[in-house]
Amino acid sequence: MEGVEPKRGKFIGQRVKRVEDPRFLTGEARYIADLPIAHCLSVAFLRSPHGHAEIRSIDTSRAAAMPGVVRILTASDLESLPPLEDKVALAELKKTPQLVIAKGRVRFVGEIVAAVLAHNRYVAEDAADRIDVEYDPLPAVTTVEQALDGKSPLLHDPLGDNIVYQKKFSHGDVAKAFAAADHVFKATYRHNRFMAASMETRGYMAHYERASGRLTAWGSTQAPHMERLLLSSYLGIPEHKIHYIVPEVGGGFGLKFPVYPEEIITAVLSRMVGQPVRWIEDRREHLTSSTHAKEQIIDLEVAVKSDGALLGMKARCIGDAGAYSFNSTSALIEPMVAGTMMPGIYKLDNYDYEVMAVVTNKTPVGPYRGIGWTAGNSAREMLFDEIARALHIDRADFRRQNMIEPDDFPYTTCTGSHYDQGSYQESLNLALKEIGYADFLSRQAELRGQGRYLGIGFCAWVEQSAWGTDAAAQSGLPAPSHDNVSVRIDPSGKVVVSAGISSHGQGLETTLAQLAAEVLGVKLEDVRIVHGDTDSVPFGMGTYASRSAVIGGGALQKAATQVREKLLKVAGQLLEADPQDLVLEGGRVSVAGVPAKTLSMADIAGAAYFLPSVRTEGSEWLAATCFYDPKATYSNGCCAVIAEVDVETGVVKLQPIVTVEDCGTMLNPMIVEGQTHGAIAQAIGAALLEDLHYDETGQLTTTTYMDYLLPTTTEVPNMRVLHLETPSPWTVMGIKGMGEGGLIGAPAAVINAVVDALAPFGVEARELPLSPDRIFRLLRDAQSRPAAPA
Ligand code: MCN
């Protein structure tokens, strides 16, 4: 397929400094906890201390008697409120309605049992402590195995079992492929449960005005219009009477996409008392009650020829969904994507897979950067390393041999993912060259001889982006998705862009301003980006799934182009020139070759708005709104890592990481690098440290950052990000999204580097994360295993 040239311009593709950063660096940014609002009351929640229990009684009288307490809610106060239910419309997915306050039974530690509204948070917290609840603890279901064993308690009695989804998919002739194989490799991988752990926790504020029946809601969230829609449906307040505002958001990473019970309760309380109400999550609540992510058990079987040719694959992806198939995202969010995207960058015609989701007495699972891809990629790439070793084939050669090649594009995987264009081989080769793969392999044995255990790992990945209707369908989770952007030039000649997408750290204000300035020929400082406010921006589906650069950027480019045409038409009338002969640059329109015939943007805009002689139908208002719902596009990259393991302590030290990113036409390389750095830091946590651990009673034992280990500057090495640019032929300007790639590919690279370092010990690593204690145990177990017969 013919390649497309990446776009370059005065702003596009340039390392423009982030326009939003001055307010963050000077402390002027306002997060939800900072918003000044008079007479605001505070909420605190009483949460279940049990993983699974019947609620025998609740007595709120001691709490209600405390001075400063305004209202206490338990489930019986909210009988008329509909339960939360995931909106995913797949017939086979069983629903697990979740009441915003538990009634009769609690199903995970951290589930809300009561809400206290008080004059301030101190009183609210103290009062919550004085609510007397009697529980009858029940046996808890804390593992996938228990959920499936048919003997463990049921979480939701009407379902009849703990399985909320189970379906098999088949592509090609897998039986024939396995019959033709020289070898079949098989393994089960347990992918850890971890979470986004954003720097800013969740927070919501609501102000219901009784006179107008209007609700103003503020949320540290990712998708303001979707929040408004869901609040409207749960509260029964018409959508046009809800104004949803997203202030600065200190990271979301998917976790702040769904509507949570706390948000509904905050709004309900405000409506009850007619006063503003705020709730800010504390860190312990964040760890227990914000969505967890990525826990899966993946069984893989791979059929190969002795020369390494990949013939077929079987997979079973079982997602541990926690207590409820979570509202607005569903229990399928992990295993469905893992199963569907398992072929990755490889040519695979014969593939059977089964997707299962089970409920357990744990916090519900929701979206986190690289949904499904992280676990699926890690499992496949771990097994591929094992296969290459067993067949005595270089690990990179094994990949190259089975990888989609440049001439194959566009390539449709057997599961129906439609890859546009990519640089899969090139990114692998570049990453390995830059990290010194060949040289490292030649030194590795010598280092081992010196008692130093170093290993190399790499992972080339493909990342789906542009989550519109097409991408959703390709992921196996069909739902319409699209976005809108408005562009207008005000009478003074300045540009305002109103975008349905909403930034929560990605630097979208910068990249959108770059695009607008490019198309409209103005300075960057003459553009303002408005987002995160449903009264000011056109309908949008939010920022997630690496969709904003492609969809928001594409809608903006289309709208800005229409405005540019209107502007040139007016300028042509004023300058008595054909619009085709006009040059738009540096905030001025001039007649080509006649520099004296020039007008400023303000001259033209002022005339367009106020001069009757140039005001014509359609041109008087320099504005346009465009809609965009592109085909899915796939970016790609490759991460390469060298790790050294201290075999006495199990501690892993990573050397500087090399990563290649190809997101088509790059809007801002500096932002792309920042995104990659952040995602790889999260990947290091995922691979080596982070683990939300439950004991057998369903008690979460990692409820502080002393127990739940996030990577720090000591664990995160320097990184070098290299760029390739293979534009998409299917999107405006060839842009592809890239916000998740680092957490899709880098975990496998880190894991495989550690496993490679441990190869001389015959360690079998199948469970993540590879934390120091796990590595220590793996080494001890390997040493105590009898030696294999020669
Ligand atoms: N970009 C670019 N050129 C491209 C593609 C992207 O310059 N060809 C820039 C974009 O303009 C944008 C950034 O890179 O500023 C990410 O773009 P994109 O890949 O479209 O991703 P989204 O903007 O849709 O952001 C969502 C993505 C996801 S899914 C998660 S999760 C995530 C992430 O972004 N959460 C983040 N990055 C995050 N970064 C921060 N700081 N905080 C989060 O919560």
Which descriptors apply to this entry?
7-stranded mixed beta sheet, binds pterin cytosine dinucleotide, 790 residues, alpha+beta, 20 helices
Tell me about this structure.
- This protein has 790 residues and is α+β, with helices and mostly antiparallel strands.
- The protein is built from 20 helices and 29 strands.
- Strands 3-5-1-12-9-10-11 form a 7-stranded mixed β-sheet, with helices on both faces.
- Helix 10 (373-391) packs parallel to helix 19 (741-757), helix 15 (508-520) runs parallel beside helix 16 and helix 16 (548-575) crosses helix 17.
- It is globular, with a radius of gyration of 28 Å.
- The model has no long low-confidence stretch (mean pLDDT 95).
Specify the number of helices. Answer: 20
Strand order of the largest sheet: 3-5-1-12-9-10-11
> Structural class, judged by helices and strands?
alpha+beta
Shape field: globular
Strand content: 15-25%
Bound molecules: pterin cytosine dinucleotide
* Overall pLDDT: 95
- Total beta strand runs: 29
Approximate helicity band: 25-40%
Biggest β-sheet, characterized? 7 strands, mixed
Low-confidence stretches: none
Based on the structure, what is the oligomeric state of the protein chains? single chain
Radius of gyration, taken over Cα atoms and rounded to an integer in Å: 28 Å
Distance between the termini: 51 Å
